[in-house]
Amino acid sequence: xxxxxxxxxxxxxxxxxxxxxxxxxxxxxxxxxxxxxxxxxxxxxxxxxxxxxxxxxxxxxxxxxxxxxxxxxxxxxxxxxxxxxxxxxxxxxxxxxxxxxxxxxxxxxxxxxxxxxxxxxxxxxxxxxxxxxxxxxxxxxxxxxxxxxxxxxxxxxxxxxxxxxxxxxxxxxxxxxxxxxxxxxxxxxxxxxxxxxxxxxxxxxxxxxxxxxxxxxxxxxxxxxxxxxxxxxxxxxxxxxxxxx
Length: 245
What we know:
Strands 3-2-1-4-6-5-7 form a seven-stranded mixed beta sheet, sandwiched between helices. By secondary structure, it is α/β, with parallel strands linked by helices. It has a single domain (about 20-235), classed as Spore Coat Polysaccharide Biosynthesis Protein SpsA, Chain A (Alpha-Beta Complex). Helix 2 (about 45-65) runs antiparallel to helix 8 (about 220-235). Helices cover about 40% and strands about 15% of the residues.
């Protein structure tokens, strides 16, 4: 092995030895405050219960990764309500309001000591474990890792240092959020790596896709699968995924 290759290998090894942390971006499951786009066409009670199940299964997914610390970040007003619902998983308050402020808080509070930090959505129990593992691997050789969604957003973002300006500006929560993030990262001269494209649970079509996946493999997200089955028994019009090709 050449000296330069040996130095590169040692750098990667030191990077891999750093503490790894998964941060779930969440809210307290209050009616009318979660999955609001779904609530436009489905009963608020069903949507609220669904969010709670999605969060429970997402927490379980995060804890399934060995050697990774898991915490939840939420608005300060939600900490007291959310903490008893997530067992021993730590809950910390974000600074400021909105998603941009939350993500800025994640890396300011948790990545400042050199941790490798991945933040992802609280409605992601359907995300393959391999994607999260890949995100940490990508982060060993890049400044930032991003997981794009099919609708122009992103479901995951990771960094190993605070980048205060990375989430500033327009575009958060819109269908150009991914492009806006890339533009800011490149303007900051940050190297970027990407995980596989995936989908959020925001609209009825997303829910139908998830329902079909869990109908075939309910153990992937057992609480969410049971929730969907329970509501489909009393609401036949709830997306079931049966019509998906």
